[in-house]
Amino acid sequence: MPDLNLELQELVAEMEARRANVVAGGGPDRAKKQHEGGKMTARERIEHLLDSGSWLEFSTFTEHGGGPLMRGVEAPGEGVVTGRGTINGRQVFVFSQDFTVLGGSLGKMNAQKVTKIMDLAAKTGCPVIGLNDSAGARIQEGVDSLSGYGEIFYRNAIYSGAIPQISAILGPCAGGAVYSPALTDFVLMSEGTSYMFITGPEVIKSVTREDVTFDELGGAHVHTRRSGVAHLAGQGDEDTLRLVRSLLAYLPQNAKEKPPTRPTSDPVDRATPELLDVVVPDQRKPYAMHDVIESLVDDATFFEIQPHFARNILVGFAHLGGKVVGIVANNPKFMAGTLNIDASDKAARFIRTCDCFNIPILTLVDVTGFLPGVAQEHAGIIRHGAKMLYAYAEATVPKVTLITRKSYGGAYLAMNSRDMGADVVYAWPTAAVAVMGAEGAANIVYRREIQKSDNPAATRAEKIKQYKDTFDNPYVAAAKGYIDDVIAIEDTRRVLIQTFEMLEHKDEARPYKKHGNIPL
Ligand SMILES: CC(C)(COP(=O)(O)OP(=O)(O)OC[C@H]1O[C@@H](n2cnc3c(N)ncnc32)[C@H](O)[C@@H]1OP(=O)(O)O)[C@@H](O)C(=O)NCCC(=O)NCCSC(=O)CC(=O)O
């Protein structure tokens, strides 16, 4: 009879030895290289991201998918660490690519580890967070690795809108690999240590002869400012992971739930007299829309998304009376708050994100119109601007619009006017709703009269005043029911909170369709 106890001890020891081998990943030298490059290892990142003690790992003993070029190759953990944990007590699923193992490259079994936790996340209705640090498709595994990407992209698309998907880019993310993050709801990058591109500097040099560094081509600075590919950037791994935790606090677990509430001691009826000094009636004086938002929301806390991209429009999350709202606001400080292609894309995407995840939308309007110009027209502002209209109309979450000052022309509609589906529209006494500004309007409508006049300048001034007196106010629109009420600036927080409360159980049906066809 063998000694059962001894046999069991040996089995346990074997499991522990195997596990230790996997946990060591590519070994201390490669881990050291990660640290020297200013990066954490895959497991250190998980520890920083999740609540302490909440980690439950899966697929620890998965091995690589084989093939002639993989004979004799060891890949402990298969280059990715996968499992579940909690963030502020709420369950999330995580995959963390391990650059110390074959450069975190993605092969067949690596992809299987990832898709397993994606499927579990979908079945249990929880967010998925991907920590990306990978050299891309595993060259030795050929088409199997491409297929692996396909399996992940497919799920990214299928689960889109069902559960939140967040990507943190903490190292290389190149070639086909970029499309998984691009298909998720939010992309966060780490400043200085991460990059994303379809083809790298060497290929670009050989094809187009352009000289560009990794960072200039696809670093966090470029993607959060110019391309709009990334939504937020942190200063290094720790900061980026902190941002992921913060972002999650504004999102529900899945499309069937509402975002968590956040208790606040900020009174729901707090008056905001400070806004009387911010929004002055002189239409030419810009003001900081950030100041307006911070005055209105709980604890002056606005979690801005894409703060450096298309700064003419602001989007982000905040709480009103403890409940999450998504805010879309023109920013008169930048390009006079006009709407252009990038602003339309940014806003439309954000509106749809809010709608997917049951987040009511507050729209703050101060807009003179779409940005005029040949470049914008030729680049398709019609197609892009249409996305905003579509996204607002499509959204069934509570939608409240507040016109702070100007709201002119097509942009009036694109900023969620009543006709475009706003549930309630408010205006401040400083608001003006018109087809265009008084100067432009007078020049067109009274051109002949001005030309014929003995004193064209005086006639022009008189006509401008006439137009202003008629339309430069909220009352024409209010009289026709396009504005539900003109409200006191200092009373706005209370009014907004009560209005969103009123809309809390809004239920709006749409006609049967397979899915809509948003202009792209
Ligand atoms: C990402 C890098 C810039 C990182 O450079 P570093 O100097 O930091 O690291 P490194 O080159 O020493 O790589 C670390 C370890 O990962 C291995 N390694 C790197 N890239 C790999 C890959 N794609 N497949 C398999 N192994 C790979 C290296 O051999 C090395 O192993 P060891 O530690 O044992 O020495 C570089 O590795 C690189 O350019 N890799 C190739 C990227 C690429 O072309 N991927 C395929 C994309 S095609 C694709 O995704 C499909 C598409 O584009 O559509």
UniProtKB/TrEMBL annotation:
**What InterPro entries does its record include?**
AccD/PCCB (IPR051047), AcCoA_carboxyl_beta (IPR034733), ClpP/crotonase-like_dom_sf (IPR029045), COA_CT_C (IPR011763), COA_CT_N (IPR011762)
Q: Name one GO molecular function term.
A: propionyl-CoA carboxylase activity
Location of the CoA carboxyltransferase C-terminal domain: 267-505
List keywords of the entry alphabetically.
Transferase
Q: Transferase among the record's keywords? A: yes
Output a single Gene Ontology CC term carried by this record: acetyl-CoA carboxylase complex
Q: Which domain of life is it from?
A: Bacteria
GO terms for biological process?
Answer: carbon fixation
Give the CoA carboxyltransferase N-terminal domain ranges: 1-263
Q: Which family does it belong to?
A: Belongs to the AccD/PCCB family.
Give the protein name, as stated in the record.
Acetyl-CoA carboxylase carboxyltransferase component
Which organism is the protein's source?
Deinococcus yavapaiensis KR-236
